[in-house]
User: Which sequence fits this backbone?
């Protein structure tokens, strides 16, 4: 008997009309976006650093203070989504609101892409993929990898359109795929890789199951599916990102963490509760024979597991290269699941379960973000005490800090000085080949050129007294700065150098010092 690689197409009618699903989509999108709408500056690690760059791009032509420190070098870089979209939004609204709009657009793109992929696989629209909504808040999102997360949504749409066009003339799907490859390149190389993983898994499934075609034709189609990726080759070769190809290393520790990052953010209990609710619902549906999983799910798990285990931790100087894969695969997997909702009691039960898991996630995020809001307000008030056009150095109280999930909002908070006070900040993302924001030549020795962890304050003081040739230049130049932020401090932490530092403000886990440039060094 011939295998059918699309076993569910056209066999069941949708329990909801297209209009009902559209209304539910926008209602749930608004619901899941409540934490974003109520927190103009969400406590996401890299996000505020990216937002500061957006502000510079949008205002550098009319802001001489910030233009004194930075310049914009537009290049072919696979990390430009925010740089292209948010500054345009910033022309019509403040940069914080523009960032909120971008995040909500990202949520909409991911969820609509999951729905579209489910439609391409199952042959009808369904509300079942809405069960993946709580996953929009995940650890990768909290780290603030915004361009990659946006790229997940684009990759989902690319795969959905490929599958929808799979039985039509190959020119159409190859052309569409080539266009998506270019867009995904400018989102993030990891997002382009995710699309490749999904495409490889689907074409491998067809290669095995579409036995009605001769093997040579199936092999030709399998190989031909990779042709659109050739569109990225000249972009990669022309990109300065290639100079970072040696910045790669593997680490097997943390692979389990990458899987946990899909569901767990602040609370283990919440993660277990959400997982338990979803598993219980799936088990009930399977027991009543209304649960269907597309064969693509198994192929996807096999391919993605192999890629995940082989991926390095750092690739092209980008951290978490492997750990960001599972969340994208989770949305693809969610698109492979279907539940028959023909009976009223099943529909009502599904909607109740959906609202419960969304509410649990929203409560978790809302409670934690509200508890961190006071710290954010304190930090913003300290930024207002910085003189406009100043230079700000960032150090840690302890070099091991900044890894706890509740610390993420503080890691790059000093970049608010770029937005609020047009300052130069040492931790701003200005890496050649990764960003288009660079310091002007006269300030290159005043920024971190490698996006490394800031120095601990004790090591910084020691390095000043006993400089070593291998130390970054900006470390040795810290006395020439105007202000020093020390992050992750204990309450009433002592002044590390009273002769050169004057405390301006102390807040929750941070201290702001003014640097007395004419003071003698502390022996």
Assistant:
């Amino acid at each position: 008997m011939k295998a059918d690689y699309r076993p569910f197409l056209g066999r069941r009618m949708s329990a909801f009309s297209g209009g009902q699903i559209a209304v539910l989509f926008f209602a749930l999108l608004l619901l899941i976006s409540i934490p974003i709408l109520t927190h103009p500056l969400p406590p996401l690690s890299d996000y505020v650093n990216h937002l500061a760059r957006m502000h510079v791009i949008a205002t550098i032509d009319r802001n001489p203070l910030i233009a004194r420190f930075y310049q914009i070098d537009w290049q072919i870089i696979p990390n430009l989504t925010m740089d292209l979209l948010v500054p345009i939004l910033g022309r019509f609204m403040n940069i914080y609101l523009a960032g909120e709009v971008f995040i909500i657009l990202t949520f909409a793109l991911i969820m609509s892409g999951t729905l579209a992929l489910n439609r391409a696989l199952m042959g009808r629209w369904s509300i079942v993929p809405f069960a993946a909504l709580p996953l929009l808040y995940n650890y990768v999102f909290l780290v603030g990898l915004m361009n990659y997360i946006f790229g997940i949504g684009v990759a989902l749409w690319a795969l959905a359109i490929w599958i929808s066009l799979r039985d039509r003339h190959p020119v159409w799907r190859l052309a569409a795929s080539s266009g998506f490859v270019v867009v995904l390149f400018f989102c993030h190389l990891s997002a382009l890789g995710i699309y490749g993983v999904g495409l490889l898994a689907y074409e491998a499934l067809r290669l095995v199951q579409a036995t009605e075609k001769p093997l040579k034709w199936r092999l030709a189609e399998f190989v031909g599916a990779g042709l659109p990726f050739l569109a990225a080759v000249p972009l990669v070769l022309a990109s300065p990102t290639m100079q970072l190809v040696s910045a790669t290393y593997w680490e097997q520790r943390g692979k389990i963490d990458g899987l946990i990052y899909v569901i767990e953010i602040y609370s283990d209990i919440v993660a277990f509760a959400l997982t338990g609710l979803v598993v219980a619902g799936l088990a009930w549906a399977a027991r009543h024979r209304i649960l269907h999983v597309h064969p693509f799910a198994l192929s996807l798990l096999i391919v993605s597991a192999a890629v995940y285990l082989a991926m390095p931790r750092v690739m092209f100087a980008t951290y978490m290269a492997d750990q960001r894969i599972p969340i994208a695969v989770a949305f693809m997997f969610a698109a492979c699941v279907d539940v028959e909702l023909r009976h009223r009691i099943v529909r009502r039960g599904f909607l109740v379960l959906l609202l419960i898991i969304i509410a649990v996630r929203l409560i978790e995020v809302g409670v934690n973000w509200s508890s961190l809001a006071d710290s954010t307000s304190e930090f913003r008030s300290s930024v207002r005490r910085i003189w406009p056009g100043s230079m700000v150095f960032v150090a840690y109280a302890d070099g091991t800090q900044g890894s706890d999930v509740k610390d993420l909002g503080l890691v790059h908070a000093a970049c608010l000085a770029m937005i609020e006070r047009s300052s130069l900040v040492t931790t701003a993302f200005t890496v050649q080949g990764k960003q288009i924001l660079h310091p002007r030549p006269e300030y290159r020795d005043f920024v971190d050129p490698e996006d490394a962890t800031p120095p601990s304050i004790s090591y910084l003081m020691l390095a000043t007294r006993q400089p070593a040739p291998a130390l970054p230049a900006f470390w040795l130049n810290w006395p020439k700065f105007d202000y020093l932020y020390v992050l992750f401090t204990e309450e009433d932490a002592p002044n590390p150098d009273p002769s050169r530092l004057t405390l301006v403000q102390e807040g929750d886990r941070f201290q702001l010092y003014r640097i007395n440039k004419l003071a003698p060094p502390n022996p």
User: Anything to note?
Assistant: The first strand starts at residue 70 and ends at 72. Residues 370-515 form one domain.
